[in-house]
Amino acid sequence: MSKIFNVRRFQNSDANEVSALIIKTLRTTNSKDYSAEYIENDVKMFSPEGVIERAGWTHFYVVCDGETIVGCGAIGPYWGKADESSLFNIFVLPEYQGKGVGRKIIETLESDDYFLRAKRIEIPASITACPFYKKMGYTYKNGIDIIDEEQLFRLEKFR
Fold this sequence. Notes:
Strand content: 25-35%
Oligomer: single chain
Low-confidence stretches: none
Mean pLDDT: 96
Order of helices and strands: EHHHEEEHHEHEE
Structural class: alpha+beta
Shape: globular
Number of strands: 7
Largest sheet: 7 strands, mixed
Radius of gyration: 15 Å
């Protein structure tokens, strides 16, 4: 039987735990695809204050196992467009990867108003997460399957 994970909207009081989750995941999982310098540059963006700032302009969710936050993800407008949205900050604690948490995050984001209003959804995907997003039905934007100057793949899904 699969484990039941609870999903809820992010609260500012979650900021320290979410920041620690993202930083641990970057340093553990993403470090196999990115340099230490690249990872530490990303780490700076995900301070508790940075997480709260991002949650201010997105619909930000957390996935909990009991009281512990084990994953997070957000959806927001794509450059202010009403008919396009983007997924952001999808992270799962390393010890919870492969247990359905990422799928639960995607399902939650894909039932959010920002997803439902959009004709196109884009994900700036890390090298690490690209195979997962492809499994979730996202494809390379404009067929471009190489990383860009930010060392990310641009993936998209049309509705």
